[in-house]
Amino acid sequence: MLTCIFDVQQSFDGQHGLRLRLQSQDGSTGRLRTARHGVDRSMSDVATHARRSTSEADDRSKALFREIAGQGPEKTLSRGFAVVRDSAGGVLTTSKVQAGTALQIQFKDGVLRTRSEGESSE
């Protein structure tokens, strides 16, 4: 009969590892070596899969970051939208401004400075 004992160990550099000890109750060293070899191969497969999965996740997160970074205001402005700012440069997200308020409207090709006539009733 084979008994498997797993120990979690921490190395000097802070890494954690899994150590496997196989013990044979009946002294059958051949079966013990075969079992150990199979477990070692399985552990190696798990480590390889974990490294591959981590690498793929890293690649996907970097691609998403590049996509998000590429969605800056210039791309939106090139599609015909504009950014409206108050005189301090803060972005306005509402039409509720007082008449005479200084505004800056940013288009893809420049900034238009204007004044509000007040909120429309539409």
Question: Summarize this, please?
Answer:
This protein has 122 residues and is α+β, with helices and mostly antiparallel strands. 38% of the residues lie in helices and 28% in strands.
Explained architecture:
The chain has 122 residues and is an alpha+beta fold. 38% of the residues lie in helices and 28% in strands.
Going across the biggest sheet, name each strand in turn: 3-4-5
What's the number of domains?
Answer: 2
Largest sheet: 3 strands, antiparallel
Q: Helical content, roughly?
A: 25-40%
- The H-and-E topology, N to C, reads as EEHHEEE
Distance between the termini: 84 Å
Strand content: 25-35%
Unreliable stretches (pLDDT < 50, length at least 5) are none
What is the topological layout?
Blueprint lengths: L1 E9 L5 E9 L4 H41 L3 H5 L5 E4 L15 E6 L2 E6 L7
Antiparallel strand pairs: 1-2, 3-4, 4-5
For this entry, give a set of tags.
single chain; 3-stranded antiparallel beta sheet; alpha+beta; 2 helices; two-stranded antiparallel sheet; 2 domains; 122 residues
